Amino acid sequence: MMRFVALALTVLLAGCQARFLQDEAPSQLDHVKSAFKLYADQLKQSSHKTLTHLDDTEFKDYKVFLGQSIDNLHGYFEKAFEFITPVATQVLDATATQREKLTKDIEDLRKQLEPMREELRQVLLKHLEEYRDELKPFVDDYLAKERQRMEEVRTKLEPVVKSLKEKIGPNWEETKSKLTPILEAVRVKVAEYLQEAKTGLEPYIQEYKDQVEKGTIEFREAVRSGELRKKMTELGDQVKPHFEKIVEAVQKFVSKE
């Protein structure tokens, strides 16, 4: 049956294929020539555009050479196509009679098949209608049973769903009553650990605060009395000779270069 349907569809498409072949004409050669020239010109332009990236690079000297090579290749392609065109034209002219005969035969075949295609279409439609009529009672019965079954399932689930809704509230309260002591015990234990940690760290925290406060007072006193400036001046005097030696060594190295 599937092979028969495939064969029938092939015959139905024969008319479309005949029109496609009939539309082919010798003007295709001109179309191919124009398309080839357009592609070659676009390729040439894009290649020259790419070569502009060689400007201000170490390969800029090759730009002219590469551009000339691209122009030469473009010219070779055009000359080759011009050489092939007369040959292709001769071939088309030599086969003109055969092509006209083929076109006429295809058109005649299309006209001959047109009424047959219509008859075949009507036959296929009739067969499909028969298949549909044969299957319709079964499909309708199946859908009716499925709807009835789903309605039965929904009817059976209604009391179950209602019972679940009624149990959710009390069950949550019961769960909460058992969960709350656990959470409270955890909270108390965590609070104890935190308090013990705080108690153990308080001496260290207080000592750190005292040290910071002491250091701040000493720094302020050093700034106020000028002691800090004196220490910074002494440190600068100690570092200055070493810095001068570094500068002198760098200058000597630069002068040698």
What does this protein look like?
The chain has 257 residues and is mostly helical. 93% of the residues lie in helices and 0% in strands. The chain contains five helices and no strands. Helix 1 (2-23) packs across helix 4 (96-225). The longest helix has 130 residues, at 96-225. The two termini are 96 Å apart. Mean pLDDT is 77; it is low at 1-26.
3D shape? flat
Beginning-to-end CA distance, first to last residue: 96 Å
The poorly predicted ranges are: 1-26
Number of strand elements: 0
Give helix % range: over 70%
Total number of helices:
5
Class inferred from helices and paired strands: mainly alpha
Largest sheet at a glance? none
Sheet-strand content, in percent, reads under 5%
What is the helix/strand order? HHHHH
Q: What integer is the average pLDDT?
A: 77
Radius of gyration from the CA trace?
49 Å
Main attributes?
single chain, 257 residues, mainly alpha, 5 helices, flat, disordered N terminus
Chart the SSEs and their pairings.
Elements: H1 2-23, H2 28-51, H3 63-94, H4 96-225, H5 227-256
Structure, briefly:
The protein contains five helices and no strands.
